[in-house]
């Protein structure tokens, strides 16, 4: 379908430069070409320097000359029949005190991103971010899973391990242009990063051994949401953390500061590896292993994946029971069988299963279950714990965090208060309806 591609994929230099070329043409290789112009199929080219892109010096000069133009380089862009606008690479070398960032997206979305406090008010937004001196860990090489981070001091639950901004963000729209063009944008992005960030990028693991840039992105990217769109971000610090199905740290993405935060979710002693989860762990071993293989391409070697079949079966049974109890607790109909005792069983299963990093949801269930029977103090107890845990994996601005903060203040003002008073409460002794 090379023909098809030549017709549909007209490489365009950014639409912003409206005034640089007449409206019926595009800027290409420093020249205005009629928009019917199509460069030769890039599939035949080996070098990314070919095919007439602006040199870095040219695009830097062009960006400097343009009025009100935030980015360090004039963006290289490509479009296809399905892209709403050309997809371009936008680099800001001065972002986050010179750490730099490149973003592969449309100009409209790139412009929208500039409104985030991380770009608009970095002094305040980023004052706690990217501070990597005196880290609470050292890097260590583990046989079978590569580099990882090991605590060099005791970390308590809630301690920040690091918080950092991505070196790159790619929007899913970039998959709508030709693969060769998508790769050119990614390579261009890496070439435009400041030297130390470029070095951190190249030091990342390339697990799949394909295109060296794409491979590093695929091996290390995390899903991040910006303005309702799920995108990929690469952060060299968090990329050093290995996966464990029973991790001792959690991370969240904060859209306002465009930062990724990592915190301990339990006590981590010096010498212990700091781990996060790459997947949803509240599933059977078989499903977890399959998911890691399919999406990350590795055989999980964590202790709960490599346990003896007896222990695997026990663990799977607990995970299944967690889902069953959560199902009851989520039932808010008059026929609901949910009780606070169920929530206690749920909490106990989370602890036994060592799912500390995801305890937040269990504490929320417990807080609501007690609130629904009008038990104020127990609701407060668990609402406080829910806030403490949920924030570590959902972030400061999460809805559940706010809800649990309100419950901790005054359960009687929340929607669940006394919702189930009068429901049968098995094992609780007192069964009379109020
Ligand atoms: C984001 S990187 C983590 C850092 C990596 N170990 C390194 O040296 O750069 C992800 C890669 O680490 C390895 N890895 C992470 N967790 C693992 C685990 N639980 N079992 C086996 N390999 C793992 C896999 O090769 C995976 O593709």
From TrEMBL:
<dbReference type="Pfam" id="PF00856">
    <property type="entry name" value="SET"/>
</dbReference>
<dbReference type="InterPro" id="IPR053185">
    <property type="entry name" value="SET_domain_protein"/>
</dbReference>
<dbReference type="InterPro" id="IPR001214">
    <property type="entry name" value="SET_dom"/>
</dbReference>
<protein>
    <submittedName>
        <fullName>SET domain-containing protein</fullName>
    </submittedName>
</protein>
<dbReference type="InterPro" id="IPR011990">
    <property type="entry name" value="TPR-like_helical_dom_sf"/>
</dbReference>
<dbReference type="InterPro" id="IPR046341">
    <property type="entry name" value="SET_dom_sf"/>
</dbReference>
<keyword id="KW-0732">Signal</keyword>
<feature type="domain" description="SET">
    <location>
        <begin position="135"/>
        <end position="279"/>
    </location>
</feature>
């Amino acid at each position: 379908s090379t023909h098809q591609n030549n017709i549909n994929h007209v490489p365009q230099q950014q639409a912003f430069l409206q005034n640089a070329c007449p409206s019926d043409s595009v800027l290409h290789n420093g020249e205005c070409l009629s928009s019917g112009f199509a460069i030769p199929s890039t599939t035949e080219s080996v070098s990314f320097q070919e095919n007439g892109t602006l040199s870095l010096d040219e695009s830097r000069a062009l960006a400097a000359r343009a009025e009100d133009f935030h980015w360090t380089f004039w963006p290289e862009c490509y479009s296809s029949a399905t892209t709403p606008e050309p997809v371009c690479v936008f680099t800001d070398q001065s972002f986050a005190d010179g750490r730099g960032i490149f973003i592969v997206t449309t100009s409209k979305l790139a412009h929208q991103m500039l409104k985030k406090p991380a770009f608009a008010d970095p002094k305040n937004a980023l004052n706690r971010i990217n501070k990597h001196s005196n880290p609470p860990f050292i890097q260590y090489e583990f046989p079978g899973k590569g580099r990882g981070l090991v605590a060099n001091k005791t970390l308590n639950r809630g301690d920040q391990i690091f918080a950092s901004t991505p070196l790159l963000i790619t929007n899913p729209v970039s998959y709508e242009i030709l693969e060769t063009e998508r790769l050119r944008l990614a390579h261009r992005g890496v070439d435009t990063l400041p030297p130390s960030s470029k070095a951190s990028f190249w030091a990342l693991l390339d697990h799949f051994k394909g295109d060296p840039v794409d491979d590093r992105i695929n091996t290390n990217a995390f899903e991040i949401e910006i303005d309702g769109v799920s995108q990929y971000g690469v952060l060299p610090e968090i990329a050093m953390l290995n996966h464990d199905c029973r991790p001792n740290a959690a991370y969240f993405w904060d859209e306002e500061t465009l930062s990724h935060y990592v915190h301990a979710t339990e006590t981590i002693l010096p010498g212990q590896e700091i781990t996060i989860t790459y997947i949803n762990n509240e599933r059977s071993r078989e499903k977890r292993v399959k998911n890691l293989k399919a999406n990350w391409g590795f055989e999980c070697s964590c202790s709960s994946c490599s346990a003896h079949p007896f222990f695997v079966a026990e663990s799977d049974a607990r995970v299944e029971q967690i889902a069953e109890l959560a199902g009851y607790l989520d039932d808010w109909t008059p026929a609901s069988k949910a009780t606070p005792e169920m929530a206690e069983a749920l909490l106990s299963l989370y602890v036994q299963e060592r799912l500390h990093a995801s305890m937040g949801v269990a504490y929320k269930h417990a807080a609501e279950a007690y609130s629904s029977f009008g038990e104020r103090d127990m609701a407060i107890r668990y609402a406080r714990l829910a806030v403490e845990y949920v924030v570590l994996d959902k972030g400061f601005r999460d809805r559940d965090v706010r809800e649990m903060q309100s419950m901790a203040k005054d359960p009687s003002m929340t929607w669940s208060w006394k919702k189930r008073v009068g429901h049968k409460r098995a094992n609780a002794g007192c069964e009379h309806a109020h």
